Amino acid sequence: MANKAFNATRGDKLFDIFNILAMTLVLIVTLYPFLNVLAISLNNSTDTVRGGIYLWPREFTLQNYKTIFQYDGLLQGLQISILRTIVGTVLGLISSSMIAFTLSRPDFKLRKFVSTTLALTMYFSGGLIPVYILMRDLHLIGTFWVYVLPGMISAFNVFIIRSFIDGLPYALQESAKLDGANDFKIYYKIILPLCKPVLATIALFLAVGQWNAWFDTYLYNGSKAHLTTLQYELMKVLQSTQQGSGAGRNANDMAQQMTQISPESIKMAITIVVTVPILIVYPFLQKYFVGGMTLGAVKA
Amino acid sequence: METLTKKSASAKRSSDPKPPTQKRRNRIWDSMKQQKYLYLMSLPFVVWVFVFNYLPLWGWTMAFQNYKPARSFGDQQWVGFKHFVELFSDDRFYLVLRNTLAMSLMGLVVGFIVPIFFAILLNEMRGMFFKRAVQTVSYLPHFVSWVVVAGIITKMLSTDGGIINDILVNLNIIDQPIQFMAKGNLFWYIVTASDMWKETGWNAIIYLAAITGIDQELYEASRVDGANRWRQMWHITLPGIRTTISVLFIMSIGHLISIGFEKQFLLQNSLVLDYSEVLDLYALNYGLNMGRFSYGTAIGIFNSVVSIILLFTANGLFKKFTKESIM
Fold it and tell me: Which residues on chain B are in Cβ contact (under 8 Å) with A286?
């Protein structure tokens, strides 16, 4: 707030000091864990066992990263993760924006029906087991498509895009129609280009969701080595010390739970590899997603 | 332009004493033809939503059968409420329900109040650069997966080299490092704190936006009246975002019981199971992994029904007391 500091009282000054301290604390608490992980990942893995690595590596090395990139599971997982992120994002963007466009048309006969159908899905779900059975019956288990098809349309994303389109002047569509454009052309030539900011937001949501997903791999494709994702590989490695943990109790998973315990530095190196792609993109998209979230909250 | 033609059409219809049905059918057909692209652009996706979101509801019938995967629907054996009776007489179920409610209530309080305070404090920051920096950094954990967060939390709380234990020992608050992850009674707090760490910045976005919408003149007027910063926050900022707060509160109550299970799954270990198992994990372990599909489905149904009741109750209460509602 551009609070001009005219007649700032003692209380106000005290408040400012308190506030700066509080926010600095937030900054440290948020950043330290990441810097610590980075430092450990760059430290010699036998030296790490001695503990005491905080912000800087004690014996700097890139060996941990070399080691993990020689591990087949990681490269395989990286490929699948990238692929599902791209395919999932593109499919999600196309479908959500198309529905959103039709929902923003006041003259569309099915508007009410489609939006109710979608809105209801935000409040209930079939539950773990019926969904699992459905995936099995659709023969999606053990395929790549189980990653992208079930989550392709999210009501929340559709409503965010719809709110954005509602904010555009409707006269644009009307004049295009007078010029002889059909509805698809209006969507493709007029609405989509104008929706860039909101589409960037949704793309970020979808991409982050896809990149970070691990449970679907665990549930559907855990035994398919060529379809496991990076997050799943990381999960296996991180959980390998916790004997008898959730992952270990699953009979299905027990077989491939490599009982080898990876050194701390290796684990942290994989963590960094999994995390970095997102850290690179999100600050650039910040101005978009702040707007997107607000649209979603007001009108969803 | 289309709305105009529609209006004149309906006006004509009402002036017509007996509209012939044939004509009306033609009109519907015409409008469908006219809007064929709109239909094409939405109907396939409606079908998609039915398949992936509504068909699983059909699977709820499993809870009333002794479901055998190999049989067709007609050949299933119907058993009525047997699985529900079994569920409600299982001691484990009440333990799991306790864990679910405890963690979701704690999550609700922390995940709701902390972001509001964070947003208000951040909004009061004077240095633009610092404010931006804090805001950008505060989103960071939201974008990282729970797998990574669970790894980080475990690392920070570990007895060898975990920063929390190091600080506590060096400040002489404790003399022996605490095995945080092995203590069942700490598990709820660890989950809640992790959630707070991960989502506070993200959840604050909406409040920050709402605060920006408050009329600046209100602040100036109050300053003239001698209100200090605390009073401004209390009497202007907080009431200014009341609508946003209520709407988000109702929405989070609706999702109270379906808190998910990712964090619990990833943070738990065999020592803390009595505190970490939540309804979804219970359904996963007892339903899916043991092949008891019907039993697991009953758990899921219980979960959904409670969520919906909570949502409607919260919405009703709010409608009554604050005139805000989401439905």
Answer: 136, 139
